[in-house]
Please model this.
Amino acid sequence: MNNNVQKQVVLSVSQLSCRQSSQFQLENISFTIAESSCVGIIGPNGSGKTTLLKAVTGCIPTKSGHIQYCNRPIASYNQQDLSKEIAIVLQSTELDQSILVEDYILLGRNPYRKRWQFWESEHDIQFAEEAMKVTQIESLRLRKINALSGGEKQLVRIARAMAQDPRLFLLDEPTNHLDIAHQLQILTLLNRLKREKNMSIMIVLHDLNLASEFCDELILMQHGKIFTMGCAKDVLTFQNIESVYHTLVIEGENPISKKPYVFLVSEDNLKKSIAQSEELEKSDRLEKSI
Amino acid sequence: MKQKAIKWWITHSILLVTLSIICLIALTMGTINTPIDQLIRILFNKMDSTEYTILMQIRLPRILVGIAVGGALSLAGVILQAVFRNPLVEPYTLGISGGAALGVAICIVFSLNQSYALSLPFFGMIGAGCVILAIYSLNAFGVVHNIQRLLLIGVMISFISNSLFMLIISLSKSEQMHSIMFWTMGSLEEPDRALVYCLLIVSLLGCLITSIFSVDLNVLSLGEEDAFHLGLHVERIRNILLVLASVLTGFCVSISGIIGFVGLVVPHFVRLFAGTDHRTVVTASYITGAIFIILCDLLARTIISPLELPVGIVTGLVGGLIFIYALVRK
Model:
């Protein structure tokens, strides 16, 4: 990925701190996202990943620090213009209304609506169609959103955000509720958007291996701070993971992509395996002495 | 979107035709029935007859008030249900009706209504205005950040004004009590023509403004956070809509008394046949509300003619039954 061509910085966050009812806190966060790159945010529950996403869109008041989008402070953007540039898929979006899927996705075109515009333009409809096509939910278009399954809802949320035609796409655990095929489908889709439309992606993931496989860069968070960041090889070391998650893992490698792969180890199995190997050694020694 | 626009026009033309038919029927029926063929003759040729006076001075203003009140209350219901994302909210939930009732009760108890004919609606308006001001300032000056909390405060204001209302009733003389109670049951009768036109204009303007905001209502009903991320100025639009709904309700209540149920049920009923898109729901609710209230008033004044029932009773009975039927059938 490290070509000599300098990529344009889309988002730059420097020394961001914010407090949300003294419970969730971000402290001294600095990072940048380049054009058409995918940044994964990982970290334990409650480490401030979602708060960081929301802070980037400006919907959480920040205490100090700067967020710049395309070299302009985010606060200087009009809310409507900003939503043409940045789209976010939140977990908290409950699809509990009885709206048709196609109407719901058309609402994603709201940032482009003029004050006196009553009906959507042909252009808007094209975008919505395109969003449904790439997420493969055309067959759901006449269903009501509150009658969809968890996985279908997730795809619909993503499609609505895509109808916004953003340059920066923020996603909060988009693979939740999805089976592995759909997980793969969504992440592959995001990768394609990144390549074809030069979209930048910031994605919160819980699955370390998916993060390693699909993100260009990872940010590991702990207690509202950035613990470490960089490429997957540097971030997903067993030392880092042990000190952040307090669990034992074994580092490996994905045989196809050669990216780091993390194996979870339960303590019981580890003890068993150690005991077994010790026994084996003992019997070996015994045989030798005989 | 061609298809949607066509559907929009079809729905609205059907509703408008129905409204005109209902209006015609309401004009002809009453203590004295005037068949349709006579109606035209009376309207154009016999301008000095008693029938003409009944039609133009009694029945027509009543129909106009019906359209204005039914439409405005339904609009307020649509707006508030979308803003609060709560299907059980109705125009009276925020305590506006309680405020108006309190104003009217004070007016009657202190016998302020003898000197001037418009004093009842005037005091109703003051009562409603105080409540609107209280709610709006709580919202606009950022005392209440959470919209659901605002709703709760509205409910509490409603309880407080109801208690004060009861207090005044318990202290009043029996004939005063009767006129207060009769006012609260609601009536479409309004002797002052200027007030009727004023109400109608406010109500129609309200419909126009709300339909300008109908797409915003669609976005807003997704929830605050999503609306924000879709580029909506949530606070600003919500304030405009809240004030609009409150003013509409205030006008209706102070002129026609408390006509319950319209604002709650008509939006739901419209959503059953027209879908949830506010571009249709807003205007369709306005017309349906008008149809519903004129029908109810027709029933109220013909069913035990020559006596008259308060229209509020009929709206509750008829509306509730129709709605339960529609829900069960679905």
Summary: Chain A has a mean pLDDT of 87. The interface with chain B takes residues 57, 59, 79-84, 87-88, 90, 92-94, 97-100, 103, 107-108, 110-111, 113, 116-120, 125, 164 of chain A (CB under 8 Å).
